[in-house]
Each structure stands twice: as structure tokens, then as C-alpha cells.
2,3-dihydroxybenzoate-AMP ligase
Amino acid sequence: MSQLTGFTPWPEQDAQRYRELGYWTGETLGAMLQRKAGEHPDRIAIVCGKRRWSYAELDAKADQLAAGFARLGIGAQDRVVVQLPNVAEFFSVCFGLFRLGALPVFALPAHRRAEISHFCRFADAKAYVIADLDGGFDYRTLAREVQAEVPTLRHVVVAGEAAEFTALADLHDTPIELAGPSAGGVAFLQLSGGSTGLPKLIPRTHDDYLYSVRASAEICGLDQDAVYLCALPVAHNFPLSSPGTLGVLHAGGRIVLARRPSPDEVFPLIGTEGVTITALVPPLAMVWLDSARQRRPELKTLKLLQVGGAKFGAEVACRVLPELGCRLQQVFGMAEGLVNYTRPEDSDELLHHTQGRAISPHDEVRVVDDEDRDLPDGELGHLLTRGPYTIRGYYLADEHNARAFTTDGYYRTGDLVRRLPSGHLTVEGRAKDQINRGGDKVAAEEVENHLLAHPAVHDAALVAMPDAYLGERSCAFIVTRGDPLRPVELMRFLRERGVAQYKIPDRIEFVTEFPKTGVGKVNKRALRERIAELIAATD
Ligand code: AMP
Ligand code: DBH
């Protein structure tokens, strides 16, 4: 079958090598689930509130939904934006689409009109799948706004009360014969945290993703007894694949979905469901640690806590084992591919002070200077990588790809790291214009463009400011056109534009001009230093 337009394949020589190595097996995600359901149909695959779906039930629902989506006119390689909270339907929908060869585009529950409209338009989506309500927010209202902005979007499918839209419950048709996709083709489009004006989409193939999932499950020692608590947003690459929910399905284990990651909700779940492994971002790990001190919850079954998405400092990392009674694993990954893990055999020094080493012996990891010259171990430089599960290009992004990848296919991660002789990496900073808000990535340019749309704003620069809890928050420096403007007005303006809450600047500072670099660009380093000093002085 022809490849998706806008997808950059691996050079055939590399693809062949990955197949010969047994990394790319030719199995699709849909087939993987079918095989598991055949091996142990009655084992529980997913726990979602009071509902428990066996592997056979999940498998059957996926086949039914593949037929139902086909009835709506959705076919191979059609894009479907999926924005669901942590509910079991996420899996029946995604596996249904995988079997059809249609491509889920993973949105986060926090996304709003600006982001969702962009995904629908950019990916030319035929359908948008939502839940009715979550966390007090009505996604049907959002869907109406998106439909008004993107008339090419044909269907809105709702898990729950559908109102005028299509109910997911009504899409469980009698299964039909399907050709199914090929494993070398794109399976879905994952989101990038980005650093440019508009969020980029990441095409991942069945072959490459399943390799990273299988290898991750092995590194984490997952087996049929694994009970994985999914507390982070289910569509995020970390809980989806590192080894995440897909790793657990591959191992024949059980997924327990938590609607919220707060200790109130998850501590009892860990006890009652016998959770053995979970994944958190650093701020949540800190909340769990502090809460565990006070409440002394029953967490006996929990063996492994994975922490990643943003840097987990050594001072906190060393508290995990004594205070939660489970092992820590640091995870440094990216939706573009490369994932690093600390390993069970690592010393405490490595465990607490590094963000792990790459999954695969065939991950090619380079640390280079500003001129792309390789640096010796121990020196700080730019992380470049290519390998069996790292993309060679963003979806439909030729111009950006020329900058984001080297001519020989290395992805420029934008991360500043040091490598130890063991291959372990420490993440020490970032060259990309992004704020990492406790694991939520904010592309500076995207937010600046929204700010610049305000008639009173002449210029805008978004930078990171230090924060004890999130690691970083965002601060917008604004030069106005002269008219007085209050921070609350600007924040309201962004909300009305439909920007996700986590991208709204945490602080706004008005200035008369920006400091400039030698070549006349906005000197963001100087702005970061200015806000850091201001915060230090007022603390
Ligand atoms: P994305 O490309 O949006 O999937 O985000 C991946 C980025 O998150 C990486 O390139 C890093 O900048 C950051 N990141 C992920 N895990 C860690 C970690 N453990 N420590 C520091 N930064 C991390
Ligand atoms: O931050 C990330 O994107 C991330 C973190 C840990 C990731 O994509 C992953 C593991 O797979």
C-alpha cells in the first residue's frame, strides 16, 4: 500500500537492517492485540472505574468500532483527532482505528479551540472523538466551535451523551472483513511539544512504535502480572509507550485508568487493584511524596515508579525508595522517538543523577557542539539521535524538517546533555525555544503569536522562569503600543482565543523594549536572567 503523503520514511537500507535485527517484526498494533486476546481472552486488560474489560472484550470492541467508523466513511489513512480523558474507550477507539488503517491524531484533554482546530485543519481530519464531559468541561461545546471553524470536519463522535453528534455506543457494528494496514505504514500522529509557531505532528509506524514498546517492556521487566496505573493523560507518549499501556497489553498485564493523578484518587486505587508500576512527571512525584509522608498509604504492591517528561532533581529522586517503598526509574523520552531509561542494575549515583541511557544498541546518540562536531564524553552539547524508532521527519513539514534533522537523518532534539562513558545522559538544559512546565511543553513562538494578535501588543517574548514546584513556569515580556494594558486582560484574551490553559503565561511583565543580542535578535537569555532575579528578590 502507498505511504501516507507527508511521511518521511527511513532509507531502505536502514529499514532492512531494522527488520533483519528483528526490531521491525511486521506486526501491526491491531494484530498485536488480536494475538494477545487469542492467548488469554479472559484476562482483564483494562480497569476503568467499575468497568473491567477482558482482552477478548477489548478485541471485540475494536473490531466493532472498525466497522462502525468504516460505516461513517472513514477509511485507510484517514485522520481522526482523538481527545479523550483516561477512559477505556480510548483503547477501543484507537485499536478500532488501527485495524481500519485510519490514523488517530492524539490530542490532550487540556487542548482547546486553537489547538484542536489546528489539528483538524492541518491533518484534514474526517472525524473528532471526544468524551461528553470531563473535569467540569463540556467537550461538545468545544466540538461545536471546532466544527464552525473547520467545515471539512465531517463527524464528531462522543463517548457518553452525544447531543446532536454521533454516539460512540452506536458505532459498535457487526465486524467486517478489512484488508488492514501494513506494519511499515504510519499508525498514528503523535504530538510534539514543539518550539515553532504551530504544533507539529509526529508520524509513527506500527513497526517502529511496537519495537520501542516491546524493548521498553523488557527493560522494565513487565510480564502478565504487571498492573500499570495510568495517571498521566493516556494519549501522552510516555504513558502510552514507555512501556506504558501498550507495553502492558503486549506483556499481557492489566491497565488501571485513573481519571485524576491526585493522591486522593490514586492511593486507594493502588491498594485495591494491586498496582505494580506507574509513571509520573516530576511535580506529581513530589505531590505523591509529600502526601505519602502525611497519610502513610498502603502502597505495598507498587514496585516501580517511573519519572520523566522533565528533569527530576537528585534531591527528590533519592526520596522515592525510602518514602514510597518502591524503586525509581528515570525516563527521558520524546514523542519523536528516542527514550532513555535508568536500569535496575544502575548504581544509586546513576539512578539519582542521570536520566538513563537509550533503549537500543542501535540508537545512534551524538552529543555535538554548535557546529555539529562530536564532543567527548562529559562535555555539554546538543543531543542528536537517529535509530530504529526515531522519526526522520515531522508530518507535512519539509521546511521545518530541513532544520530539525541533519542531512544524514539525525533528529536535533534541542536538548543540552552530557553523556557518561556508560551511555547515561544527564539533561542540563535546552537550546530549543520551549518552556517545560513540569512536563507540559510550551512552544514560545506559538504563545508569542497569540499574544501578538492583541491590538495593544507591539512585541512579545515568552521565557522560562524558575519554579520550585513545576521546575519552570512561563513569563511573557510585553512591549505595548502605548495603550495601558493589564495582565488579566491579556490572559483573558488568550483564553478567548481558545488556547490551552497550560500555555497561558504564568506571569506578564511590561517593558519598553527588549534587550538584543549582537545580531539584533531578542536576547531571551537576558530576559530569563531578569525574571529569575526579580523572583529571587521578592521571595
Ligand atoms: P516532546 O518532544 O514534546 O515529546 O518532548 C520531549 C522533551 O521533553 C525532550 O526533548 C526533553 O526536552 C523533555 N524531557 C522528557 N523527559 C525528560 C527528562 N527525564 N528530563 C529532562 N527533560 C525531559
Ligand atoms: O516528555 C516526553 O515526551 C516523554 C517522556 C518520557 C516521552 O515522550 C516518553 C517518555 O516516551
